[in-house]
């Protein structure tokens, strides 16, 4: 690896971390769309900032563009507040307009502005190592690295300082307000950090990837954990992993780095979505199948409990009587046997002591829904979870 | 009643998008009562509580807690929002949610420590939820979630408690457990204000009641004003509740 390669991966990783942190809270607040809006509507801010400063890495440009992001949020909330349209409609109204103003400004001033639409959408990660920061005559590294590093430090400081406030206002706005932690203040704080991060990351990775880096790692992490701190760490981990593996994917395929990183983000999400242990698609389908079997089991046990007659409890009769197909009947019988709920003696099925108690308890639960008593059953039976 | 006034609401009008949902409410709640707010859906019960707590800005009127604005009296007040107002899939545990009750006393930036954790565990114990402290909140039943919310209010160690429909979606056992804790709070001299739906249980659970439907219909002791006349005025239809006195 040469120096430029290391620098590109470092920048991509820092961008990923800086995006994953506000992204986690945006996902939890169900505000993924707002990051899309911000990432597009900062464009006119960037163009105006560029006219003024002639430097894409200038802090003034960052602030101007971030301000456009905040204005977007305010506009969206204002339109929404009139009660005439829903939030997603308001977002859909605001950002395309601001984005197209930016596009027109670039097109009209193509000669003066060294920006083009491709770069806006996908960024120029490959070129970031060439724009160096020279300090007192020494080369201290790419400007982008310093810029995004600075934003990341700021984000981390704010995260550590206001973690508790972010958590409570995200989970329970009403409580947060009543305790004196203004949800509006925290909301705009988060929007400001998201805007600044978006602008800082924009030049390196473009409008599309910024959104992907904010939302995809957090959405993947959300499916894997029930702990906010772990969710943040996982989101950061997924972001960095996608950044570095995406870089090498691009290297191998000789393709766009930003595009490859986005592909990796999508892939990570897809895998998590399918295979996450409790919230993944496969786990959910499996659980539903289990539940179906358990309901059958309960029906079956109840039938046994209600009938003393031998013919009602004959293995073959059960099949006809409860009207199950062979496979279903067999899997239910097996499950009941495995759990020592029944004994089969000369093809006659009877409830065991355990089966009897279980059936009584379970029916009781379903009728009264008193949850405390069935705590010990929850581990064995999906039916009583959730 | 000779008790001091804990909560005073003067000429309160609150609107969403310029459409008033509370009109000119005057209300005095004496210290030490266990009060039900009753009224049909959309009557503005939640809105009234949120306005008292400064969560919503009224377009007119004022609110005071022991004679001072809410902002100055936050330490005295605990709030349990409607259960449906939060996302129970949020990645957090029962213990963590209860610990949030200590955040107000901590103020900005400062993090909860051992002392706060201990207080949260004690509150969990009080509502019978200690065995579930580590459980993710979406894995709790409706009744258990409501108990967690109650524990979070208890940990605030307040003088005034506001609870928005604490019996919503809870089983009979939990309802009794919750009302017993609320009665204990009253015994300790606290003021408890509860948005309540089940009119049958009002006389049994509460000693004070406010009828609300956009306007205040009546407020006072249950034994004096909980009658068919006020119920009819509040709910609009002819009401016959068999009130066992
Ligand atoms: N955020 C809101 N925006 C607009 N209207 C609202 C909002 N919250 C409540 N409302 C309206 O205000 C009225 C009172 O609501 P609420 O206080 O929740 O009633 P209650 O708690 O008595 O059921 C209802 O008509 C409701 O539709
Ligand atoms: Mg309500």
From TrEMBL, chain A:
SUPFAM superfamilies: ABC transporter involved in vitamin B12 uptake, BtuC (SSF81345). Its main location: membrane. It is found in: Cell membrane. One of its GO terms (cellular component) is ATP-binding cassette (ABC) transporter complex. The keyword Transmembrane helix applies. The chain crosses the membrane at residues 6-28, 37-54, 60-78, 90-107, 145-163, 175-193, 205-224, 231-250, 256-276. Coiled coil: none annotated. It is a multi-pass membrane protein. Keywords: Cell membrane, Membrane, Transmembrane, Transmembrane helix, Transport. The keyword Translocase does not apply. GO terms for biological process: response to zinc ion; transmembrane transport. Belongs to the ABC-3 integral membrane protein family. PANTHER family: ABC-TRANSPORTER METAL-BINDING PROTEIN, METAL TRANSPORT SYSTEM MEMBRANE PROTEIN CT_070-RELATED. This is Zinc ABC transporter permease. It comes from Aurantibacter aestuarii.
TrEMBL record, chain B:
Residues 7-239 form the ABC transporter domain. SMART domains: AAA (SM00382). The keyword rRNA-binding does not apply. Keywords: ATP-binding, Nucleotide-binding, Transport. GO terms for molecular function: ATP binding; ATP hydrolysis activity. The keyword Ion transport does not apply. InterPro entries: AAA+_ATPase, ABC_transporter-like_ATP-bd, ABC_transporter-like_CS, Metal_Ion_Import_ABC, P-loop_NTPase. Belongs to the ABC transporter superfamily. This is Peptide transporter. It comes from Aurantibacter aestuarii.
């Amino acid at each position: 690896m040469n120096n430029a390669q290391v620098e590109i991966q470092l920048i991509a990783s820092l961008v990923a971390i800086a995006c994953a942190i506000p992204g986690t809270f945006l996902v939890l607040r169900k505000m993924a769309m707002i990051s899309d809006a911000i990432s597009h509507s900062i464009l006119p801010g960037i163009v105006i900032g560029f006219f003024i400063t002639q430097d894409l890495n200038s802090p003034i440009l960052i602030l101007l563009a971030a301000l456009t992001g905040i204005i977007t949020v305010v506009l969206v909330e204002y339109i929404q507040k009139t009660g005439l349209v829903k939030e997603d409609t308001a977002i859909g109204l605001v950002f395309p307009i601001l984005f197209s103003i930016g596009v027109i400004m670039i097109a009209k001033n193509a000669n003066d502005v060294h920006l083009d639409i491709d770069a806006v959408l996908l960024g120029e990660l490959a070129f970031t190592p060439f724009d160096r920061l020279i300090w007192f005559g020494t080369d201290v590294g790419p400007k982008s690295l310093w810029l995004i590093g600075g934003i990341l430090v700021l984000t981390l400081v704010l995260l550590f300082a206001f973690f508790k406030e972010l958590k409570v206002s995200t989970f329970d706005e009403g409580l947060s307000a009543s305790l004196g932690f203004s949800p509006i203040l925290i909301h705009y704080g988060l929007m400001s950090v998201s805007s600044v991060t978006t602008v800082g990351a924009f030049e390196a990775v473009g409008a599309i990837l910024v959104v992907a880096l904010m939302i995809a790692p957090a959405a993947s992490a959300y499916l894997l954990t029930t702990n906010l701190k772990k969710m943040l760490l996982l989101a950061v981990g997924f972001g960095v992993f996608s950044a570095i593996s995406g870089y090498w994917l691009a290297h191998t395929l000789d393709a766009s780095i930003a595009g490859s990183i986005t592909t990796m983000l999508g892939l990570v999400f897809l895998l998590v979505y399918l295979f996450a242990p409790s919230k993944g698609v496969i786990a959910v389908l499996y659980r539903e199948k289990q539940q179906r079997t358990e309901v059958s089991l309960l029906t079956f046990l109840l039938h046994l409990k209600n009938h003393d007659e031998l013919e009602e409890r004959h293995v073959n009769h059960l099949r006809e009587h409860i009207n199950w197909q062979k496979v279903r009947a067999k899997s239910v019988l097996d499950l009941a046997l495995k759990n020592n709920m029944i004994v089969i003696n000369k093809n006659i099925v009877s409830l065991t002591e355990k089966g009897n108690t279980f059936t009584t308890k379970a029916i009781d639960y379903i009728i009264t829904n008193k949850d405390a008593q069935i705590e010990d059953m929850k581990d064995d039976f999906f039916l009583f979870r959730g | 009643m000779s008790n001091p006034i804990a909560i005073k609401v003067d000429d309160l009008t609150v609107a969403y998008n310029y459409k008033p949902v509370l009109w000119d409410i005057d209300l005095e709640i004496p210290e030490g009562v266990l009060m039900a707010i009753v009224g049909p859906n959309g009557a503005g019960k939640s809105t009234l509580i949120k306005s008292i707590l400064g969560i919503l800005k009224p377009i007119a009127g004022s609110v005071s807690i022991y004679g001072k604005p809410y902002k100055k009296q936050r330490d005295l007040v605990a709030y349990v929002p409607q259960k449906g107002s939060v996302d129970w899939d949020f990645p957090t545990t029962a213990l963590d949610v209860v610990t949030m009750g200590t955040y107000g006393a901590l103020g900005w930036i400062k993090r909860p420590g051992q002392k706060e954790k201990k207080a949260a565990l004690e509150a969990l114990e009080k509502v019978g939820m200690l065995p579930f402290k580590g459980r993710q909140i979406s894995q709790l039943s409706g009744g258990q979630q409501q108990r967690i919310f109650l524990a979070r209010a208890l940990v605030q160690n307040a003088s005034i408690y506001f609870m928005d429909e604490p019996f919503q979606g809870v089983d009979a056992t939990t309802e009794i457990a919750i009302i017993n804790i609320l009665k204990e709070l009253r015994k300790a001299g606290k003021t408890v204000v509860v948005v309540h739906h089940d009119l049958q249980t009002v006389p049994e659970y509460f000693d004070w009641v406010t009828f609300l439907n956009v306007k205040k219909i009546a407020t006072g002791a249950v034994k004096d004003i909980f009658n068919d006349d006020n119920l009819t005025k509040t709910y609009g239809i002819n009401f016959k509740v068999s009130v066992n006195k």
